[in-house]
């Protein structure tokens, strides 16, 4: 049925946009093309082997429904990725990640519709060229494919990842010394609810910028001037906490008309009501300029700007 729609030649020959939940998109204005919303539902266990369970999930499943379902089954791996807005089909595009886990560590393969060839194709892990919030689907040829399902590998006997400082701290606050995956999910949900606004209540697309990776020399220079700079090792360089840079540049809680910076997490831009996409973009531009002037670091958007 869906493929029948995809085979309507006019659809992909004309301006079009494939949309999931739209939770990581900023529209800079009205969109004058066809919007196709992916609504394919279904979760299927395709096999079990060596303590792993393999699940094939259709692209239109809500990401957090999947996480909740897997946690309730006792299958480990996704719990740190709790409460991330969006659909399963979008998750590999930006290799979603949170609290020490990235999707690619659980990813086996995906199925996509190739608009050019007019047929279904399979991408294995190595074909996806995953990076930090990046994959082949974000590159130049990315627009060629419509992801229709994703296969993940979870653990029947879960190994917990509580290495991210705030998760360990939250578990301690909850009074839990030997946590299970349900506790980790609960801890992650609590942290997210305390820092990140719910898009249902306050318009936002999560982190607006990526955390920038800078050479070691640049990091050392900044660290000597700002000893409280927050950063993590990343290959040959260091990944700086963009939220820290924006916060230090004085933007946290800023508001101009309805476009603002979240008061609890400076990396999240928010729409207090009627801000246009252009107003949010203008604010993002001002923040980018200010961080560049103050720290000599260039911020790049994490959200997709249409
Ligand atoms: N910080 C500040 N001030 C702020 C915000 C952050 O000083 O206003 C500092 C804090 O010291 C904090 C550090 O920056 O410890 C890092 O902040 P946080 O733990 O909130 O993580 P992040 O780097 O800002 C990334 C992801 C989030 C993900 C969290 C948790 C990116 C672009 N963002 O944010 O993902 O939930 O880590 O793992 O990598 C998203 O992609 O939309 C998203 C929300």
Question: How many domains, as an integer?
Answer: 3
Query: For this structure, what is the CATH class of the largest domain?
Result: Alpha Beta
Radius of gyration: 20 Å
Question: Order of helices and strands, N to C?
Answer: HHEEEEEHEEEEEHHEEHEEHEEEHE
| Apparent shape | globular
Bound molecules: uridine-diphosphate-2(N-acetylglucosaminyl) butyric acid
Low-pLDDT residue spans: none
Which CATH-level-2 architecture of the largest domain? 2-Layer Sandwich
- DSSP helix count? 8
Annotate the secondary structure layout.
Blueprint: H1 2-6, H2 9-13, E1 16-19, E2 25-26, E3 34-37, E4 43-49, E5 52-58, H3 63-73, E6 97-98, E7 101-102, E8 107-114, E9 119-124, E10 145-155, H4 165-173, H5 181-195, E11 203-207, E12 213-215, H6 216-225, E13 231-234, E14 237-240, H7 242-248, E15 255-256, E16 259-261, E17 268-271, H8 277-295, E18 304-305
Parallel strand pairs: 1-3, 2-18
Antiparallel strand pairs: 4-5, 5-10, 6-7, 8-9, 8-10, 11-17, 12-14, 13-14, 15-16, 16-17
Helix pairs in contact: 4-5
Bound molecules: uridine-diphosphate-2(N-acetylglucosaminyl) butyric acid.
Characterize the structure shown:
The two termini are 28 Å apart. The protein is of the alpha+beta class and 306 residues long. The strands form six sheets. A five-stranded antiparallel sheet has the order 4-5-10-8-9, with no helix packed on it. The mean pLDDT is 95. It contains eight helices and 18 strands. The protein has helices at 2-6, 9-13, 63-73, 165-173, 181-195, 216-225, 242-248, 277-295, and strands at 16-19, 25-26, 34-37, 43-49, 52-58, 97-98, 101-102, 107-114, 119-124, 145-155, 203-207, 213-215, 231-234, 237-240, 255-256, 259-261, 268-271, 304-305. The radius of gyration is 20 Å and the shape is globular. Helix 4 (165-173) crosses helix 5 (181-195). The chain has three domains: 2-37, no CATH class; 43-155, Uridine Diphospho-n-acetylenolpyruvylglucosamine Reductase, domain 3 (2-Layer Sandwich); 203-305, Uridine Diphospho-n-acetylenolpyruvylglucosamine Reductase, domain 1, CATH 3.90.78.10. The site of uridine-diphosphate-2(N-acetylglucosaminyl) butyric acid has 18 residues, from strand 11 and helix 7.
